[in-house]
Specification:
Chain A is mostly helical. Chain A has 14 helices and no strands.
Chain lengths: ~270, ~350
């Protein structure tokens, strides 16, 4: 009993600590202008929606959301498509270099972004892909592929080889066995990988900032960061936009919660 | 694996028997095309298949782990291969229902594999093989995940099924009871080599070498390793001397001085009631299995096991003697069987 109480207190503490910044901007977004400037600060807002209106209408938030959805959505789809083929090969074929390859992927994913920003920008510039969706999507794919391949490899390894062999003997080709048997069985893993890639692309700021200088194609994080003008600091609108930007991620996570929990814990214990 | 060569006749139930790691599963996987051979040829009928991909070989494989498709119902599991062949749904329904009825799983068709017991899963795996009517069935230790009671009833059922369908079966097992009851032809393997090919009776009564003799039979055959002495009248096993004069009538004279292994199955011993027997010792342990009673005797430093066929039982510590008939004695020279 005592243990349970300690555990509950401890986990609540951690959850609160993580949620404070989020709570802060959610509460801020619901304040009125007067409450925003009040000293001492007002804790409980009066639930004004003014900041949401102005974020949407004056600052063109919807436009950024569309850009973000296009970029994050395409990056996720392409990453998972390429990543699952690569991961399948690593998990299934007895290739000599798979461990080295996985190590290489891990090493690459640890490069600081700032170190590759210059070359990436130059390449996209030469290819005339700056300020285009494909340009940013290409950058995101290269950033998220290593993680996706790692996750998917674990999941494909979880699918017993004999089930796939049974499919081959039943008359499947390799590709048929992959999409009829392996992919449905690895679905929680694919979901997990897709969600992580999507969240990363949705939140990514640095590459979006340097690749997308044209406001027409900018994504949410960049758009919100550029809300402040020369003489203005629209805290309320920033808070409202941040709240809206977070919503899709929370919704996605809630919807796919069960699959993800299964996904993240797979490999730890045999199902 | 080396020098593996054997034929399975049409409609034959052939067993690959051997200890784990002897290469029996590998042979099955090579035939199925799940592994590629480094040399040699594999034929099914008149067609050479070792260069074909698995899906072109028309083989059904029943895995030890069943390998059912977990996301499909029993019906879909059975129908999967037929769908891939582009069969019409009516035809599929007929075939699946026939197989399901034969295996008594027709009440489970809408269930997912995870809702089935081990025995039911095994039947589904069998059904998946049956519906296809393949050229050959490959079984890779299909019963070893079942509990003992289920295993022996499935064993009988498999035998019945085979008799009814007349299918060609290649069956891998390390369980000699399965091998001896099911197999029309048994191939004993060890360390990647064929040790003996023969009927259950051949394998049991005329084991080709010490490995086969040791592997088949439970409890194991008793072995006496020694040197032929006294011009074939005795076998010198370290500090023990087995008298062969009355037993083999000097048949071993030509082998005088050579190392010889003598084997006797536990059930071939009979208790010498009055006189001292051929082998005498103190009872060390009695294994009473109900149907059989096995007596362990310390004969010098050799542990001898014999079946006690008598009504009355002895007690540990009692002195007991055994006799054996000459034709029940197995002789091995350099590990290979010889006839006296």
């Amino acid at each position: 009993m005592k243990r349970t109480i300690t555990l509950v207190l401890f986990s609540t503490g951690i959850a609160l600590y993580c949620l404070v910044p989020f709570l802060w901007f959610v509460l801020t977004s619901l304040k009125s202008n007067a409450e925003l400037a009040a000293i001492p600060p007002v804790l409980i807002p009066s639930f004004h929606l003014d900041f949401y209106r102005s974020a949407l209408h004056q600052y063109g938030l919807l436009h950024y959301i569309v850009n973000s959805a296009i970029v994050a959505g395409s990056a996720t789809m392409v990453t998972i498509a390429i990543g699952s083929l690569a991961a399948y090969a690593i998990a299934r074929f007895n290739l000599k270099w798979t461990n080295f390859y996985l190590f290489l992927l891990l090493a690459i994913s640890m490069f600081p972004q700032i170190a590759i920003a210059g070359p990436v920008w130059t390449m996209l510039d030469r290819l005339e892909l700056l300020n285009t969706y494909p340009g940013l999507v290409a950058a995101y794919i290269s950033l998220s592929l290593p993680l996706a391949i790692w996750i998917l490899t674990t999941f494909f390894r979880e699918v017993p080889g004999e089930i796939e062999e049974a499919a081959l003997l039943d008359g499947c080709s390799r590709i048929q066995a992959l999409y009829k048997i392996v992919l449905p069985l690895a679905a929680p893993g694919i979901l997990t990988a897709a969600l992580l890639v999507f969240i990363h692309a949705w939140n990514e700021f640095f590459f979006a900032l340097i690749i997308m200088t044209d406001p027409n194609v900018q994504t949410l994080p960049v758009g919100i960061a550029l809300f402040p003008g020369e003489y203005t600091m629209p805290w309320g609108e920033i808070a409202a936009a941040s709240t809206i930007a977070t919503m899709p991620l929370i919704l996605l996570t809630l919807v796919f919660q069960r699959g993800i929990v299964r996904g993240l814990s797979a490999g730890a214990v045999k199902g | 694996m080396k020098n593996i060569s054997f034929d399975v006749a049409d409609g034959e139930f052939c067993i690959l028997l051997g200890p784990s790691g002897c290469g029996k599963s590998t042979i099955l996987r090579l035939i199925a095309g799940l592994e590629a051979p480094s040399g040699g040829e594999i034929f099914i009928g008149d067609q050479r298949v070792d260069l074909l991909p698995p899906q072109k070989r028309d083989i059904a494989f029943v895995f030890q782990t069943y390998a059912l498709y977990p996301h499909m119902t029993v019906f879909e599991n059975l129908a999967f291969s037929l769908r891939l062949r582009g069969m019409s749904s009516q035809e599929i329904a007929v075939k699946v229902n026939d197989a399901a009825r034969l295996l008594e799983i027709d009440g489970l068709l809408e269930r997912l594999p995870q809702m089935l017991s081990g025995g039911q899963r095994q039947r589904v795996a069998l059904g998946r093989a049956l519906v296809r009517q393949p050229k050959i069935f490959l079984f890779d230790e299909p019963l070893s995940n079942l509990d003992a009671a289920l295993r022996s009833s499935m064993r009988v059922e498999l035998a019945r099924l085979h008799r009814r369908l007349g299918a060609t079966v290649l069956y891998v097992t390390h369980d000699q009871a399965e091998a001896l009851t099911l197999g029309e032809k048994i191939i004993v393997l060890d360390r990647g080599e064929i040790q003996q090919i023969g009927s259950a009776s051949d394998i049991y009564h005329k084991p080709a070498n010490v490995m086969v003799a040791r592997f088949v039979g439970s409890p194991q055959m008793n072995f006496f390793f020694g040197e032929v002495a006294d011009g074939g009248a005795a076998l010198q096993c370290r500090n023990l001397r087995l008298d062969l004069a009355g037993l083999l009538q000097n048949a071993l004279a030509r082998l005088s001085g050579q190392a010889l292994t003598l084997g006797v199955r536990p059930e071939d011993f009979h208790v010498a009631d009055d006189d001292p027997g051929w082998i005498n010792g103190d009872i060390d342990l009695i294994e009473d299995l109900g149907s059989d009673r096995f007596i362990h005797v310390k004969y010098g430093d050799i542990d001898v096991v014999a079946r006690d066929g008598r009504e009355k039982s002895s007690r540990p510590g009692d002195r007991i003697g055994f006799n054996v008939d000459a034709e029940r004695v197995h002789l091995f020279l350099d590990g290979k069987r010889i006839e006296p």
